[in-house]
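Checked the freezer inventory, then went back to the computational side. Two predictions to log before the end of the day. The first one is the construct we discussed on Monday; recording sequence and tokens without edits.
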Amino acid sequence: MLMSCRRVLVLVALLLASSPLLASTTASATAEHFGLAGTWVGWATVAVFLIAYTLVVFEEKLHLPKSKPVLLGAGTIWLLIAGYLTAAGGFPEDAAKHAFEAVFLEFTQLFFFLIVAMTFVSAMTERNVFESLRAELVSRGLSYRALFWLTGVISFFLSAVLDNLTTALIMSAVILACAAGNTRFVTLAFINLVIAANAGGAWCAFGDITTLMVWQAHRVEFFEFFRIFVPSVVNFLVPAAIMYFAVPLGTPPSARDDADLKPGAIGVCVLFGVTIAITVTGKQVLHMPTVFGMMFGLALLGAYAFQIKRRETKSNVDSAFNIFQIIAKAEWDTLLFFFGVLMCVGGLKAVGILALASDHVYTVWGHTWANVAMGTLSAVVDNIPIMYAVLQMNPPMDHGQWLLITLTAGVGGSMLSVGSAAGVALMGASKGHYTFMGHLRWSWAIALGYALSILTHLWWNATYFTNGIGHAGP
């Protein structure tokens, strides 16, 4: 509850900090926005967004799915914009339409990309791929400290191709199965898991929604993300090495947990790899949008699923593999939440709020400090609206700075348990073993890793900062 209030207060503070700018803005439109920040509609859009995001923050308390308030907020914001432009006159009659379509088309590519990714993950889950991994680790009889490192390293690399939430949930099952009720081990292993999953998702375009958005916006190319692999490793290893000495000694009781792969499991995994290869090749070589490769992969999975279903139907399997049932298992609340957030932020851009924020933050503070601050803010505000807001602000940054904001937005949420989807999910999955306060006790170590990863990036990728590290504005 305390952190929910804190999220809202931080968001309010940031908006109030730019209020002098809002008040002095004229209604003259530019090529990128309508210049309405100083009008009542500008203030109204900010108020609607704040209310919608506040309801998202209190999702668990209100039992209100997070997609509903942002969908309503997005509709209200664009209704206000369209109504104002129509009533005010002086704007093309289809101005609001074109602005809305521009944001909507950006989301459609992201939507279908995520649908395919979620379908592959659901298919691998249904074929017992992740259950088999869990069973294998449980049966190894590893020590607590070995499990601490192994689950962290696996999470770091697994989250590069899966999202941090899926990775966290998969590996948390391993930790809980091996922990034998050892609360101290579960707490430290879960903190390590959150850090590893977030850090691993930062150095690959497929690892996080934020990296995917940066890639699709052509700010960073696919192979350039690998330049932040080393800073991501630093972000993971520094707090892990510190926490390692607090991990209890000894070995949990050995356990036997059999979970066999279902027929076609390996084929689904191979097709996922092929889909990634087609997507990257299609974008880098053929200059096709990323959604082309993902939808091609979905077609291949559909054909393969048909063959699996035929074999299982002939074998009288109770629940034969059905690709449409797999697609239906996608997290629709999450997908619609993304739509609502992106349309809300797109509305803030249309009225001119983001242009003012960009001038106030990126021009005054400088690109490096602004990107560090944005990443720190992601510990209390979701990194998706933060990254999308930066993309919509579109400050004139070089590749080094775009890689920096990708890194900070990806790993900044690790500093608090509520700073990422992985941390929030694990608080629910841990059954009281992993808590906000338990994570907070190690936030200093995580913040140290965050700072050192930034310094590592500034040194390791110095040649990418063509405008200079302290550059501010154009």
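The second is the one RB wanted added to the comparison set:
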Amino acid sequence: MTLTERFKAARRAAVPIVGVTTPDPAATVIELCAACKKSDIKVQWDFVRGFQGIGDESRTVAAEMGEAQNDPYTAYQSIAKMPAKAVCFFHLAHKFISDPPFLQSLVNLRDTLKADGRTLILMGPALDLAAELQHDVVILDEPLPGEEQLAKIVATQLKTFADQADIELAKICTDEIVGKAVEAVRGLSAFAAEQVVCMSLTKKGLDIDALWERKRQQIEQTPGLKVYRGGDKFDAIGGVAVVKSFVSRVMQGAGRPNAVVFVDEIEKSLGGAKGDLSGVGQDQLGCLLSYMQDHGAAGMIFVGPPGAAKSAIAKAAGNEGGVPTIQLDLGAAKGSLVGQSEQQLRQALKVITAVSNGKSLWIATCNSIGELPPELRRRFTLGTFFFDLPDKDERYAIWSLWLSRYGLLHKSTCDFDTGEDLPHDEGWTGAEIRQCCDIAWRLRCTLKEAGNFIVPVARSASDAIERLRAQADGRFLSASHPGVFKRVQQTTAPVGRAMEVE
């Protein structure tokens, strides 16, 4: 059911108090007023203007109710005097709903309003109801606009621009242009979509690239969300051929996702969720579990030591499929106020749903999967891939890429077999190879000299890597070779000597 249909059902049932969560309250008021009967009195209250009528007859009623500016706690006395079947939209309700005086006001209004079909509508981006109201208030959630509504917004703005700029509409408004624009603004509120479209219009038509950039800026206003702006694809990453092939096929296959959601080092946010006494971590865990289950979101987990290309693959996955990569930072989604963390994560997930049109691919990286709850690991249905330290051939490919990027390839033979010009790189990760090239470029020195400033993770955290390998052995898929990961046992030469006794 749409928001309008659910609102009409609430009105028919004489529900006295309705909560509406919406990213665009002004547009929602217009939509819900259109769903009311023409004879219904419709008023709204905000903290600055007090009561205002919507329509001539409603203005008269609002004037009789008084302004009640800056006084949300006594405004309910005027609401109680509204005529039968009247509707009152109460803005910024989420700012007052937890205060005891306002809470008591709502409790007092419930039975008064239901007797003659009056409705108080609490408006806000999110509403955290107190226990006293949870069984009395019906919450209606307005989703972000869908493709059909966004297409109308884009077409309307293009037509308006063509009329004002005296440009032929057919040149700037085609099905292809509208389709690309809708894909670019998906995930924004109606007003935000209208605004970024208008700002991206030029005499040549709609600038799709500018539209994408403004859309990214809008998304990043949501706490916890950031859009990856890098342009690298998988051909800029050496090694891990199996996982690159697998992700590429997922991005181009049936059920192609419209966005990649990247959660970096997920174990640091959710590894200890069950022991979080504040309850925030447990709520985040439960929220993600429910979201991935309800939306059928597919995902995969990348496990391995730092610098093994886990994050690089996750970030490049969106570019490989031509869709945005959204980084979800669960720590940044937390707030300092009670209930703020829960609201912000739910709002972030709402934006992800709108951007992806309900079809998202989740990629989580971690350095220690043993800390993740089993129920969370099961949600990532496309498997767990283990990223081991690159082998000889993979290191050669990584050296070639970074030497070329830093303009060092012509200065080095990059002969892996002889080791000419290359430092001893046994056990190096791709990140350490890049670091070596960066140092050689900055210091204008040889690669071997730059290698003296590298302490590989294989040496500094050898015990941790061996524990990861033991954990992944026969359990996780290999990111570099087909099938499950197989740990190669290190063998040592026998100690002692063979002696004969005469």
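For RB: The first strand starts at residue 17 and ends at 21. The mean pLDDT is 88. Let me know if you want it refolded.
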